[in-house]
Specification:
heterodimer, A: 250 residues, alpha/beta, 30% helix, elongated, B: 357 residues, mainly alpha, 16 helices, flat, DUF318 (chain B), Membrane protein (chain B)
């Protein structure tokens, strides 16, 4: 890999990171929103570094100079295959993320992952939840699925029972029995650590996989111990398809 | 030994070998040839053209291919691969920049003042330094490389490499948030990780040999401007570590998508096996240490000690990290360092897990 190739690879890598954060919201498919400034800063550094390397090479070509081997970039290491220009061949792999971002542009994880990933765990001790909804208001309470299942695991006073709750998520088939899941994915850092938050719906026919729905309904409290529940059941009053699905992670 | 012609080149060359040996002591030829070491102008031009075509292919692929890739498994794999690459990228770039700054702007005398001369005394200092500086494992590898280049004892730099991603404040807070109500898990993680990092450092100070580490590259031209040293150091480290990071991300994404969680859960009831399985799971999954606590807490079927193994082994040994270390320090280093680290991490997991959890 000669120096001009190294410079171009860095610029392309920076362009990939920059275009998925500044010009589109593609990065939200892969990492937390909080990564945006770091990705932009890293991309800017990559582009600046690559550009100065290319500029230095171009200058030496224009002057027709024999470039002095740059400081420290001595004859290649063993794995560079004998080419005396520093970078090992494995550095070409840096083009793979560029290909991934520009050509494949993978979508956010969906039901395929939700069927296989780990499910959320019951919280260890009772979390302090706020009162449900505005006091005195009658309408349904909008809630993240994450919050719903956390309450469902800890709501010993059954204060959520009978309240109308609105959940939004995508449909995931239940391979092991009746009904289907309305699910969202939760990521701590990036899509590799995504875990599933889901509620089981048995009183509506199963919609197509990965379609998005806004469901209003009520919690079906289980009999017996709340913490031993695996699937939280939700009985649906109204089910409405979502036209513009939001970020699948919550 | 082939017979060497002693006179002038024989008129008939019977074979390539003959022709080569014939020219061996031919004094008439200029050696090295006049274009030796010259920039290969046409080659550089070819490189530019090749990348121009590559960029066109990217645009074409973007227009034509993006919508036609529909295989769910492939897309899930591609998403996880992109996610790991993008998530690690800032940490790698900042780590490489910090390492380059350490090499080019901080004088060597500074390290001699701050780090104790005695390697045995320097190891715990380095471990404690890891507790203060927030850094991800992708960043700590180039930083440790930069420290070694500046003359810090390798044992101390390696302790820092292990400790910084495992017990930095961000990771400890993330662990406390994930394991709400179980402060003993944070304490156990801190104790086991610090113990393992310092132990590995001491063992390396006692037994480690310098030639196992790839020798730091040739010293810089002392007259070169500092920013130029900075630029070259950054370029070198990115090119060496970046490719391996991508390799690690490829492997981790494959495991993440191919291995069903149900297989992992199947062994949760076996006491020792479950600990080893979660340790192995941490190695192949290569999750960033700032996020691994959230995954560990979701593995509800497992014992606390098994989860501790996931938290202690993950930041110290994983596929992405092994590839990165191989690229930075060489494979004869990885062959010795990785098994040693894994063993120390497991011993401390069992000991601290038995004591605290």
């Amino acid at each position: 890999m000669n120096r001009i190739a190294q410079g171009i690879v860095l610029v392309l890598l920076g362009a990939g990171a920059l275009s998925s954060t500044v010009f589109t919201d593609l990065y939200l498919n892969y990492v937390q929103a909080g990564f945006r400034p770091f990705l932009i800063a890293a991309a800017a550094m990559l582009i600046a570094l690559g550009a100065t390397v290319i500029a230095a090479e171009a200058r030496s070509v224009l002057r027709g100079e024999v470039p002095v081997e740059p400081a420290g970039c001595g004859p290649g290491h063993a794995e560079s295959g004998g080419h005396g220009h520093g970078a090992p061949r494995v550095a070409w792999l840096l083009l793979l993320p560029v290909l991934a971002v520009f050509v494949v542009a993978p979508p956010a994880l969906g039901s395929y992952t939700a069927e296989n990933a780990s499910t959320a765990a019951p919280p260890r001790e009772e979390e302090a939840h706020d009162e449900l909804g505005e006091p005195g208001s009658e309408g349904p309470v909008e809630m993240e699925i994450q919050e719903f299942i956390s309450r469902a695991w800890t709501d010993e006073k059954r204060s959520m029972e009978g309240k109308t709750i609105r959940l939004t998520g995508f449909a995931v088939p239940n391979p092991e029995g009746e009904g289907w899941y309305l699910a969202r994915l939760q990521m701590a850092c990036c899509a590799a650590d995504a875990i599933v938050n889901r509620v089981l719906i048995t009183d509506r026919p199963e919609p197509p996989e990965d379609s998005w729905w806004r469901a209003e309904g009520t919690w079906q409290p289980p009999e017996g111990d709340l913490r031993s529940v695996r699937d939280h059941r939700f009985s649906v009053e109204t089910l409405e398809e979502v036209e513009d699905p939001p970020d699948p992670y919550e | 030994m082939p017979e060497r012609p002693t006179g002038p080149a024989p008129p008939v060359h019977a074979s390539l070998g003959d022709s080569l040996t014939a020219r061996w002591d031919d004094p008439g030829d200029d050696l090295p040839p006049p274009d030796w070491g010259r920039p290969r102008g046409p080659r550089r031009l070819a490189t530019v053209w090749m990348f121009a075509l590559f960029t066109l292919a990217l645009a074409a692929g973007n227009a034509w291919l993006s919508d036609r890739l529909t295989s769910e498994a492939f897309l899930a794999w591609a998403t996880v691969f992109t996610a790991i690459s993008l998530q690690a990228l800032p940490f790698l770039v900042f780590g490489v920049a910090l390492s380059a700054a350490l090499t080019s702007f901080v004088p060597a005398s500074f390290y001699r003042r701050v780090v104790p001369d005695n390697a045995y005394a320097a190891v715990p200092t380095a471990g404690a330094a890891g507790m203060v500086l927030p850094g991800c494992e992708c960043a700590s590898v180039p930083v440790a490389g930069g420290l070694i280049k500046r003359g810090v004892a390798p044992a101390a730099a390696l302790t820092f490499l292990l400790a910084a991603p495992a017990i930095n404040p961000v990771v400890l807070v993330a662990t406390a948030v994930a394991f709400a109500g179980q402060p003993e898990m944070v304490l156990a993680r801190l104790a086991a990780s610090f113990g393992a990092a310092v132990t590995v450092g001491w063992v390396w100070a006692r037994l480690g040999r310098t030639d196992w580490l790839r020798p730091p590259r040739a010293h810089h031209d002392p007259d070169a401007p500092r920013w130029q040293i900075f630029r070259e150091s950054m370029l070198h480290d990115l090119m060496h570590a970046g490719g391996f990071l991508v390799l690690g991300a490829l492997a981790a994404a494959t495991v993440n998508v191919v291995v069903p969680r149900a297989w992992v859960a199947a062994v949760a009831d076996m006491p020792v096996v479950s600990v080893l399985v979660l340790a192995l799971f941490a190695v192949v999954l290569s999750i960033c240490s700032e996020a691994d606590a959230f995954v560990a807490v979701s593995l509800t079927e497992f014992s606390p000690t098994a989860k501790l193994a996931f938290l202690v082994v993950g930041p110290m040994v994983d596929l992405k990290l092994i590839a990165l270390q191989g690229g930075t320090f060489g494979w004869s280093f990885v062959r010795r360092f990785v098994p040693l680290t894994l063993a120390a991490a497991l011993v401390f997991t069992f000991a601290i897990g038995g004591l605290l959890l």
